[in-house]
Amino acid sequence: MKATALAHPNIALVKYWGKRDDALILPHQSSLSLTLSPLSVTTTVEFGVGNDAVELNGHTARGSERERVLRLLESVRASAKKELGPAKVVSRGDFPMAAGLASSAAGFAALAVAGRAAAGLLADPRAASILSRLGSGSACRSVQGGFCEWQRGERADGEDSFAVQRFDAAHWPDVRMVVAILDRGEKEVKSRDGMKHTVDTSPYYPAWVQDAEKEIPHAREHISRRDLQALGELCERNAWRMHATSMAANPPLCYLSSGTLALIQHLREQRKKGMPVWFTLDAGPNPVLLTDAAHEVAAEALARACGALDVVRCVPGGDAELKAEHLF
Ligand code: PMV
Which residues have a Cβ under 8 Å from the Cβ of 282 and sit 6 or more positions away? Predict the structure, then answer.
């Protein structure tokens, strides 16, 4: 009744931006990401002890954070079809900074894998992906390593909305993602609220959905050929389009800071000089640079020259996995 799992975060190359079902976290479009090592979150779940208790990074979780964890475990209980009792959850990330890079994807993926194992359910990436999606959408892409595609699905119950691994981490060992932390502050508008506002008020939203879905097979093709330039160009235009859609919301939503734009400008200049580097940008000001092993040090230098407070160099990460050692 006790299990521990480790999972890595992921960064989308084709972003997920907008839900068609807020409760089940079903997206309007498919998305595609790369799972990143060495960053990870480890989570231990034990059923049948005391009262429900959730500790995240040394703090007792409260409010919506706690509810999201307990809701996911409620779904584990329903799948287990047996009395499991209260759950104790302890989760710890090894992320070097608090708000720079979202740890929620890795956290919910680790929780889903550990929760299912603690309940005695068999390892099943599809079921774990569906389960982790209930915590945070992007988490469904962190159950497996390498390049994962979250297929939007069609069903109203969400049973066909999960991530599948397209290429494992060994497919492209040379690819790198370099996270540039320009700002450690909490973002003003959480992804969850920002995407809802965009769906509800941006006249560009339908075009975003159509375009993002169309890019998925192209992204897959570029990854299969390990074509960094084609993938870089695709991932930049997809990030711009997500942000353009948000900027067109009413009132407008802008996650970019002046520092973000300065870095992008500098990156373009370096690219003109022959450096293979592209960027993507989640719902915040911190760009993630896409490059190869030969240029990761130069990409870090580029980020630092543009005022990055911290830089994390990442390689393709593996599947979420069970660990023999527990956190309590
Ligand atoms: O899964 P959430 O609710 O953290 O939303 C993630 C949204 C983006 O990071 C902006 C895009 C993505 O696909 O990860």
Answer: 11, 12, 15, 102, 191, 255, 288
Is the Cα dihedral 120, 322, 148, 137 positive or negative?
positive
Per-position b or e across 19-38, b if 16+ CB within 10 A of its CB? bbeeebbbbbbbbbbbbbee
CB 136 within 8 A of CB 195: no
pLDDT value of residue 96: 67
Query: In testing the pocket of ligand 1, which one of 104, 142, 193, 282 has its CB within 8 Å of the most ligand atoms?
Result: 282
Alpha-carbon 72 to chain mean position: 17
Instruction: Give 177's strand partners.
Output: 290, 314
Residue pLDDT, tens place only, 227-282: 999 999 999 999 999 999 999 999 999 999 999 999 999 999 999 999 999 999 99
Q: Which residues line ligand 1 (CB under 6 A)?
A: 12, 15-16, 31, 102, 104, 136-138, 191-192, 282-283
Which residues, at least 6 apart from 255, have a Cβ–Cβ distance to it below 8 Å? Answer: 187, 189, 194, 243, 246, 281, 282, 283, 284, 285
Count of CB atoms situated within 10 Å of the CB of 57: 14
Which atom of ligand 1 lies at the shortest distance from residue 102's CA?
A: 4
* Confidence class for position 187, pLDDT limits 50, 70, 90: confident
Contact predicate 290/235, CB 8 Å = yes
Angle 229-40-33 from CA coordinates, rounded to 5°: 30
In terms of Cα–Cα distance, which of 275, 9, 17, 314 is closest to 172?
Answer: 314
Task: Return phi, psi of residue 70, to 5°.
Answer: -70, -35
- What distance in angstroms lies between residue 51's CA and the mean position of ligand 1's atoms? 31
Q: Is 52 buried (19+), middle (13-18) or exposed (0-12) by CB count in 10 A?
A: middle
Cα gap 83→89, rounded to integer Å: 17
End-to-end CA distance of the chain: 13
Side-chain-facing half-sphere of 295: CA atoms under 13 Å: 19
Which residues is 167 bridged to in the sheet? 147
